[in-house]
Specification:
Layout: H1 2-25, H2 37-40, E1 47-49, H3 51-57, E2 65-68, E3 75-76, H4 78-88, H5 99-107, E4 114-115, H6 117-129, E5 132-137, H7 147-154, E6 166-167, H8 177-183, E7 186-191, H9 194-202, E8 206-209, E9 230-232
Length: 237
């Protein structure tokens, strides 16, 4: 009889331990709806727009010339820039003035750049409309470049629709993108930087902001929507 009692006591003890373990892993009571990292980027009072909304806003307009910045707009190219900083100027940003860096970046290191999903979606939407797309970058021009090839492949652009990348350079106190936008008679320009939106506003064309990824090598992050411009929702990736 004592053995039976001991067996039942052991069983009861095991069940009591199990209930304690279960109690420890129970989820706490929800006190709010919570928020995702994507939703966090949408909480500021800026003029958010989606790709669909942009397409609808252009519905009754004929094909036009459209412009895109490259770095942090259609490509996440920080891996190449990070490599360049480590190789040429680990203690400062002087690598950005080094021709050797730009030769590497414009001819090899975009192999490590990732196309942004928003870039693919926007480019494909404009191709479907029949728009003429230009890529205007602030990168320094080099004798040769493979950026055009990578963009065509990564953004799925037909060869006969791909214009060669325009290297506007980056001179202090001068926004060289303005002259290129004017020359190609752009009606709309997408970019992540304040200078991109400022260039569009200078020519009185529609400038739409793309969110720069928070882990971009290009810091500090700009204040999207600070000029009252449209900001594409979920465009950080």
């Amino acid at each position: 009889m004592r053995k039976v009692t001991l067996v039942f006591s052991a069983i009861a003890f095991v069940f009591s331990l199990n209930s304690v373990v279960q109690a420890k892993v129970q989820m706490p009571e929800s006190v709010s709806s919570g928020v995702t990292t994507v939703e966090l980027s949408q909480r500021q009072a800026v003029h958010w727009v989606s790709v669909d909304q942009i397409e609808k806003s252009l519905q009754d307009q004929p094909p036009m010339a459209i412009g895109f910045d490259i770095d942090d707009t259609v490509l996440f190219s920080s891996p190449g820039f990070y490599r360049g900083k480590l190789k040429y100027s680990p203690n400062d940003n002087s690598y950005l003035k080094n021709p050797a860096f730009w030769e590497k970046m414009n001819n090899e290191w975009d192999e490590f750049s990732m196309p942004k999903q928003i870039g693919i979606e926007l480019v494909q939407m404009h191709l479907k409309r029949g728009d003429n797309i230009y890529f205007i970058t602030g990168r320094t021009k080099t004798k040769t470049e493979t950026v055009t090839k990578y963009l065509q492949k990564d953004l799925h652009i037909p060869a006969d629709k791909m214009n060669a990348v325009i290297f506007a350079g980056d001179e202090p106190g001068k926004n060289n993108k303005v002259s290129w936008m004017k020359e190609h008679k752009l009606k709309l320009y997408y970019g992540d930087a304040d200078a991109d939106i400022a260039a569009a506003h200078e020519l009185n064309i529609r400038g739409i902001r793309i969110l720069r990824a928070s882990n971009s090598s290009y810091q500090p992050l700009p204040k999207a929507g600070r000029f009252g411009e449209e900001v594409v929702i979920k465009s950080e990736y």
